[in-house]
Sequence to fold (146 residues):
Amino acid sequence: MARARTRENWRRYTPHYRRRDDALHFLGFHTYHQYLASSLWADIRAKVLAERPMCGVCGVKATQVHHHQYDRATLMGNCLTALEPLCRRCHEYGEFNRSGGKTPLEICNHRLRLRRQLLRRRRKKTQIPTSQPCGEVSGSEEGVPR
Ligand SMILES: [Zn+2]
Fold:
């Protein structure tokens, strides 16, 4: 009961899912689950992962694709810019809160942005400055092997 109430709250909180469901009905799907099981989504997903195989947040191999928005062009696969390849860990971090509940889309996108920034900052901090190997000239093509 409490879970259903929570779900209803975030549905009311964000209009994205209503728009998504409207777009899916236009495309002939009854549910988002049905869409995710379709060959249309399988093709779109495969195309995104082939073009961008690494997680857009942490940089490891991506296995999932996240919708940043659910407009008709994205759902049809005509526009792939709102689709981001993610690893399972990053996707779950964005999609679910600490108690396991689903986060609204804009919160999910925000959480993914924060995680990306945090991981970038951590990477910068842990990078040890490396000196140029002997004989290589920085900033010119002379050091590039042919
Ligand atoms: Zn990741």
In short: The radius of gyration is 20 Å. Confidence is low (pLDDT under 50) at residues 136-146. The pocket of zinc ion is lined by residues 55, 57-58, 60, 86-87, 89-90 (CB under 6 Å). Helices lie at 2-13, 16-26, 32-36, 39-51, 72-76, 88-95, 105-126.
